[in-house]
Fold:
Amino acid sequence: MAQQRLGIIMNGVTGRMGMNQHLIRSIVAIRKQGGVALKNGDRVMPDPILVGRDAGKLEKLAREHGIERWTTDLTAALKDKKDTVFFDAATTKLRAKLVKQAIAAGKHIYCEKPTAENLKDALSLAKAAKKARVKNGVVQDKIFLPGLMKIKELIDDGFFGRILSVKADFGYWVFEGQPEPLNRPSWNYRKKDGGGIILDMLCHWRYLLDNIFGDVKSVSCLGVNNIKQRWDESGKPYKADTDDAAYATFQLSNGIVAQFNTSWCTRPRRDDLVTFQVDGTQGSAVSGLIKCLTQSRAETPRPVWNPDVPQPIDLFKTWTEYAGKGTYDNGFKVEWEMFIRHLCENAPFKWNLLEAAKGVQLAEAGLKSWKQRKWIDLPKLKI
Structure:
């Protein structure tokens, strides 16, 4: 058994998502477990170099997690032939430019989504990677959530019968920055910086629907700019000029209808920050990030509509928890391990830059639907 080194340029890891999910809970966790095991018994050990603009933050982060290398010079990092992978979790506004720069340097690509602000640029990245013959992958974390993996198991087992609909309720209250401190980056609410919940979240909903329920055929979407002034990280007020809530209906190619409410302006009273409900002829299920509850046809209650008396049936108690078939690791870490195996032993990995472009296509169609107030069809993408 041998150990292989994998040099990874990690850009944008001082941000919330890059630091917590990708660095600490994925790469650092993989290093602590002794690397990623390959079929031949070898293990691949990630050797990251942290890249960003703030030297102080980088040095502190590297020291806290036992990482030897960091730099503020991305151009120099891309020139190092010993580091073969470029990862980006910085802002959407810069992603297409940085990924294209890394492709030109011959690096394999793994990055967050959306991969670009528009479909043209997203497709150009997929084309560039194909031409350069570099392997590429994009984070599609939600299909690796334990709750949704359990729903996929139920689908594969035929529990639902014919699936009729999928409903999702996602979001929570994002504080404006005054008097309470903000709890999401301010760029998310500025159009010029690549903000907007439609661009952010419809990319997630595309791969989730495509991979678990069926290909998205068309979309009807309404966006809302609810809160028009927020305060940034330095306490300065700014104009919040982009959508902070979206209400979308999707038609899938197999006839399933999906309805997703997505909002940074809601106070959830539900089991989790996101819940997914699947209704079928033989049963239903509701999942959050981890937990999944089911109700079979035999367990389905027969409530009577009577507005004059309190509901006599405790509808919450008519559901049964589904434990799933195995153990479920952090979804970001799971996908990192899959991509590393793809790099090192050519294991299958379908979630590439072209798949990511489908998410940008849906976001673009959602924005168009909102503007034109009509259904938008999604043609098949190819490069």
Remarks:
- The chain has a mean pLDDT of 97.
- The radius of gyration is 22 Å.
